[in-house]
Specification:
Number of helices of chain B: 9
Helix content of chain C: 55-70%
CATH architecture of the largest domain in chain C: Orthogonal Bundle
GO molecular function, one term (chain B): ATP binding
Number of strands of chain B: 21
Membrane topology (chain B): Peripheral membrane protein
CATH superfamily of the largest domain in chain B: P-loop containing nucleotide triphosphate hydrolases
CATH topology of the largest domain in chain C: MetI-like fold
Strand content of chain C: under 5%
GO biological process, one term (chain B): carbohydrate transport
Structural class of chain B: alpha+beta
Organism (chain B): Devosia aurantiaca
CATH topology of the largest domain in chain B: Rossmann fold
Protein name (chain B): ABC transporter ATP-binding protein
Number of domains of chain B: 2
Radius of gyration of chain C: 28 Å
CATH architecture of the largest domain in chain B: 3-Layer(aba) Sandwich
Order of helices and strands of chain B: EEEHEEEHHHEHEHEEHHEEEEEHEEEEEE
Strand content of chain B: 25-35%
Oligomer: heterotrimer
Number of strands of chain C: 0
Shape of chain C: flat
Largest sheet of chain B: 6 strands, mixed
Amino acid sequence: MADTAAPLAMGAERVDRPGLLQRIFLHNVPAKIAALPMVATVLVVFVGCVAWTIYYSFTNSKLLPTGKFVGFDQYERLFATSRWNVSVWNLIAYGSMSLVFTLVIGFILAVLIDQKIRFESAFRTIMLYPFALSFIVTGLVWQWIMNPTLGLQGTLRGLGWTGFTFDWIANPRMVLFALLIAGLWHGTGFCMVLMLAGLRGVDEEVWKAARIDGIPTWRTYVSIVIPMMRGVLVTAVVIIGSGIVRLYDLVVALTNGGPGISSEVPAKYVFNYMFSGGNIGQGLAGATMMLLTVLIIMIPWAYLEFGGKGRRT
Amino acid sequence: MQQSVSIRDLTLNFGSVKVLEHLNLDIAQGEFIVLLGPSGCGKSTLLNCIAGLLDVSDGQIFISGKNVTWLEPKDRGIGMVFQSYALYPQMTVEKNLSFGLRVAGMPKAEIDQRVARAAEILQIQPLLQRKPANLSGGQRQRVAIGRALVRDVDVFLFDEPLSNLDAKLRSDLRVEIKRLHQRLKNTMIYVTHDQIEALTLADRIAIMKNGVIQQLADPATIYNKPVNLYVAGFIGSPSMNFIPGTLDGETFTANDGTRIPVGAYDFVTRLSGATKSVLGVRPEHILLGDAARNMPFQTQAEIEIVEPMGSETLAWTKVAGVPVTFRCSSDIPLHVGEKVTVGFDIARGSLFNAESEARL
Amino acid sequence: MSMTATIPAGTPMAAGANEPRGQRPKPFFTPKKIMLYTVLVFFSLYYLFPLYVMLTTSLKTMPEIRFGNIFALPTAPSFDAWFKAWSSACTGLTCNGLAPGFWNSVKITIPSTIVSIFIAAVNGYALVNWRFKGSEIFFSILIFGSFIPYQVMLYPLVMITRELGIFGSLQAVILIHTIFGMPILTLLFRNYFASLPQELFKAARVDGAGFWRIFFEIMLPMSLPIFVVALILQITGIWNDFLFGVVFAGNVNYPMTVQLNNIVNSAQGTPEYNVNMAATVLTGLVPLTVYFVSGKWFVRGVAAGAVKG
């Protein structure tokens, strides 16, 4: 990270070097007091709470987290529960589609916006405004649009297109696509902004060099620009990915997990078991699995970004 | 001589801003032309127009006798080297050199041969498998030149290629570019704001200001016979000394009354009557002591500041009431407060009309 | 003086009348351009359609919705549904409309925004200028923590707030928003302060100014842009939150998003789509206003959230 920031704290090391204890507690005191909320948050929430959750996921806690240690029982039960398995499958299916489409659409829109078009800021404003809205609003609007009788389907049938079918939120096999449409509506503009920043970060002279070399525009994007945008792409994947794992509000608002359990997701499963299912151990085990998923996404990224030879350009 | 690049009546507007206006320039085959000027003078814009990276508003561009005004950059027979190198960062040096040729569908054998030749000329064979991130600035710029080289073109365009390098590397690469030109004998158009680069490299220099070429001539002419005050002040470091005054016949009278005979001056235009004008003389043309006594003009001056530069010494004094610098050998001991005799020969100086700023 | 130093062009290639000259001829409609704008307009319709539907539906009457179509403009626009959504729509428990939720959201958003930004600004400042042993480690964990799903920390936090006696109150939500806003905001301020000239800070130290004095008198006055970005990020983020509101606020303090979801998804009886959409518009109004007013700053905010230190 920023090794450029001058370690000014060192500057305070005076000739009479204080003892170790003094240096830890008395040195730089106001800064340490000021950083106390951060230190407390890190220790209590991001370390303490996470450890607590992992620990209690190995107990048989029911209504209260007091249970005794039962090893992997909760996890065995978790993966024996069809609702959890459906949730996981939904997350994988929705997540991979959402990730791919968000990146592809976001990139394509960014490229289109980058063609020195007219009304650029109007297009950008239109594409990004859904991102300012909450998932609840997003879910409810699309729920209404996809309402089978009065929404788009009903309207188009009423206009004479009787074969038109758009009942995805009522159709267990299609409901994930309903989620996808709403999710893409909400998030692609954001991805576009990221990608556009990446595109605009490409040295203009590289484009000139490619034109002199006679590289067609599409080839320049594929062979030169996209590889140069690796940093932005990785960041986008991590942000979109960790957002997908958290997916909760949108499902609650759009389908509430229905029809049946066909659009359940892990975050909702965990929430329900913790706060209304009366089986905390199950919820905690599910939460730990979510954590694991995020780690699987994060660790390769962290390694690429900060590990290796510490190479960053 | 055969014209290599010819620019006719070139005009470029960005909206209502005129960047270049009715610009004409003819460049001979094998000539090394430097476009020199401060930033914003239009020199890079002109180069981009020649390359086809900017659409011109009016006028024509010919390269090797072909009208290329509407052609794509790749079809103009040019190669270009950029300030930021503009290498493709994810490709090895070899791929960087060959990418354009591969996209154009050239047979592999010929690509290999061209890459090998360019690598040999620029001595970058050991670097071919490296990526740009693992190269030094000088090596990167060599690769960038190589990318122009493999295109086997008539005209090379350089857009401030050395500006991102440190002083030492800059002078090394400068020599190398000169060597390259001597070996290849291509036409080269080179944009820079560094007058040393311009003076050392160019066959001819075009000094630009506000989108207009002020003077187009060989370095010696530019240096010794600048066409106007702007060129005179821009070229030379430390810059030319200017003494404002009035010219009447064969006598120049400085504002403080000092009279300087200018009979030996080679006038471009002769004016009748008294004219407000400026006399310019370069620091190295002001002589000191015994040497000064043989000069047509001499005067007493007091040394105000002494700047030893190693090989020479720069001294500040006042002549005819205005600050004047002169250059002398570092062997001559100079002291602040010392009175010395200084003198110069007007035949080596310049006279400008104070109003039009043009050379007299 | 002639304006150009021209060499007489006595060369054999003198320009003919039909030679290319000036601008390249560019047809106004190229297939590429038509494609470009078609795709952009298509996507714009996708993004705009829900907004259109939301607004028109909210201005219609129920019979008009039942027998009309979703594209149609309201024949007689009326704000009745808006008034009902605001003051008398039922959530399944009560029939007070969205108004209580709106005020709860205000009561949550304002203090949460202020507290979280202040703490993050101090954090960022301490991280850049007053580094102490371990400060970077804490910061790294903080950033890493921002990617952990909230569900992982939710239950222990419920227990902690219960122990503190604030569970089910506004204080609890404010605390939670401060905690989870900390990673991104700290990153934002840290990067911003790191971009300021260090000499300024050094000069202030040489002048004998201490931690807080430098912060309030030197750093804060220079930080307006980043405060605007943080403000936008927090106001929209906290206003749009659902999960923390539903868990920590308690029934009486439910923020607007929770109320909205309850009105639409848990109301009994025949659904009143115009009221639902009016409620949805009302809930979206605050972040939308922030978005349209802030313009480029919003973009800076979301982009700033994406760049890593």
